[in-house]
Amino acid sequence: MTTNHELFQRAQQLMPGGVNSPVRAFKSVGGEPFFTARADGPYLWDVEGKRYIDYVGSWGPMIVGHNHPHVREAVERAVKNGLSYGTPCPAEVTMAETITRLIPSIDMVRMVNSGTEATMSAIRVARGATGRNLIVKFEGCYHGHGDSFLVKAGSGALTFGVPTSPGVPKANADLTLTLTYNDLDAATRLFDEHGHDIAGLIIEPVAGNMNCIPPKDGYLQGLRELCTRHGALLIFDEVMTGFRVALGGAQAYYGVTPDLTTFGKIIGGGMPVGAYGGRRDLMQQVAPSGPIYQAGTLSGNPVAMAAGLAMLELIQAPGFYDQLAARTRLLTDGLQAVADGEGVAFSTNRVGGMFGLFFTREKVDSYAQAIAADTAMFNRFFHGMLERGVYLAPSAFEAGFVSSAHSEQDIADTLEAARGALRAARAG
Ligand code: PMP
After folding, report:
1. N6-(pyridoxal phosphate)lysine (modified residue): where (predicted)?
2. With b meaning 16 or more CB within 10 Å and e meaning fewer, what string describes 168-199?
């Protein structure tokens, strides 16, 4: 039998850190990653046959659980007709119709292949449409690995202590202004000073890459008003929150309308997909109807579209999001009760099917609080959970995800594991 360890030894000789995306390497939590052999429902199985209840869900997209038969069968049907055409295909039109119907702020959409491409393209549109150069982002927010975004970034960039990456030219980084998330006064001051040069402000409407931090009441609305007043575009990066916190994404959940929206992973049902879209007058400036160039050989891929459409059908079932939110609440309330019972300083955040766990007594609503929480305790807890067959994101700075496949029994099993893991973590 191939072991996780053997695979990791080989992988490290061949790929940077042994992985194709940094956080997977377990570097911040220590130890070695497991290698997944298969996934079904809420579970992953590693190559050694160990089962994990999975709260990462491929970093979000597996909202109906892994290997859902409806999605898998749609892919199987699509594959029979070929893998890529490089011409328009009918599923793209259905996908665009579905997205524009579910997200009223989107009149037109362009499919791409990842969240990174979606955000890079969205800020190009913001710059092209406004004729301005500055982009505003938030410390601890992650928008993929485009040059403009690796400035005080979240996710792996934050986990590994290189939030501003070498390789990003200073001239490029200088065009990205950063703000503190959930601080409207700071945003007002920045816009008062630079508003006339700001092309767009990009934000994760619920921050999910510095752990999970929801916006304060009125915060997103305040940013909307600032952008409107200063002629800058408001871009919601809903790569994580889209079709996750509500069917209409965070913009529906909080009732705030962005000019442009980016999506990723989740609309591909697990296939490599992203999209950006928004107001018609903006999107019509994208090539070939307008001069702002953006393209993709595999964009609108028929197999990815089939998977995404099948997934989007499932999440439109009545009550889907109420049930998802209820399951998530069962998990976070349950974990809080277990931690309280064990006398561990702990708090949680939760929006729809997305959650965050913090080793601190405070309710966390800022980046500063998120990084001040006890990460050593998190790392011990992470490993305790892993040993007990529960897979959380391998970093204290990532959100967690519940799927509709997680049963009440899975949650109960998770809480039981948490009791043991917290005891062990507390003991050090
Ligand atoms: N934006 C957000 C909010 C994300 O969470 C991510 C990835 N986790 C991205 C953009 C980048 O997406 P991708 O990894 O598909 O390039």
Report:
1. 265
2. beeeebebbbbbbbbbbeebbebbeeebeebb
